[in-house]
Write a structure and sequence with these properties.
This protein is of the alpha/beta class. It is 34% helix and 25% strand. Strand 1, helix 1 (15-24) and strand 2 (31-38) form a beta-alpha-beta unit. The structure holds glycinamide ribonucleotide. Residues 10, 12-16, 45, 89-90, 110-112, 173, 176 line the site of glycinamide ribonucleotide.
Length: 204
């Protein structure tokens, strides 16, 4: 079986990256991590990538004169490494439309809320503060909007009356670690069919 090649983009802790990596160690995994890219030099995720002996790069847009140069550089790197799918895993930057176009329907993201509720940042706190009873996490294709692309998988998490941002984030993260590798596996099984806003999960 030819394995799919994944690029993971991250900015921080990298626990989702680690869950993706761990899934690649399973005997039946249909993908592997070709490259890890961080826009933060000191990201814990980069340290993890080094520990796992994965190809890793620190690349900040600040190192480039223009957005275009940055995009070109990233795209070139992805091409050299024969990347099939880009997985954003706590990558705290808006992806440029030029890059999205180049990797159309081949960039996915994990978000710690049930989209379309609570897009953007600090969403676990927003969910607690708003008093919603259920939140969760979402894996979705990336389009030029903020957390607006077609939804692949979601997992609900009940909010308890004594939850705070931290306790809720921890429970959501546990589910993120399950659904992200699952979504990637589906992608490489060619079972995700995008039909407008909808992602249809094809039977085996
Ligand atoms: C995760 O909770 C992820 O869903 C979130 O950042 C965290 C990264 O944690 N992403 C976003 O909020 C994107 N809008 P990690 O670095 O341990 O995977």
């Amino acid at each position: 079986m030819k394995k799919g090649r994944v690029a993971v983009f991250l900015s921080g802790r990298g626990s989702n990256f680690e869950s993706i990596y761990r899934a690649t160690l399973k005997r039946d995994s249909n993908y592997k991590i070709a490259i890890v890219i961080s826009d933060k030099k000191k990201a814990m995720g980069l340290k993890r990538a080094k520990k796992f002996k994965l190809k890793n790069f620190y690349i900040s847009p600040k190192l480039f004169k223009t957005k275009r140069e940055y995009n070109r550089h990233i795209i070139k790197l992805l091409k050299i490494n024969k990347v099939d799918l880009v997985c954003l895993a706590g990558f705290m930057r808006i992806i440029d439309p030029e890059f999205i176009e180049e990797y159309k329907n081949r960039i996915i993201n994990i978000h710690p809320a049930l989209l379309p509720s609570f897009p953007g940042l600090n969403v676990q706190k927003q969910a607690v503060d708003h008093g919603v009873k259920i939140s969760g996490c979402t894996v979705h294709f990336v389009d030029p909007g903020i957390d607006t692309g077609p939804i692949i998988l979601q997992k609900p998490v009940k909010i308890r009356s004594d939850d705070n941002e931290d306790t809720l984030s921890k429970r959501i993260l546990k589910e993120e670690h399950k659904i992200y590798p699952e979504a990637i596996k589906l992608f490489f099984e060619n079972r995700l069919k995008i039909d407008g806003r909808k992602v249809i999960i094809l039977d085996r």
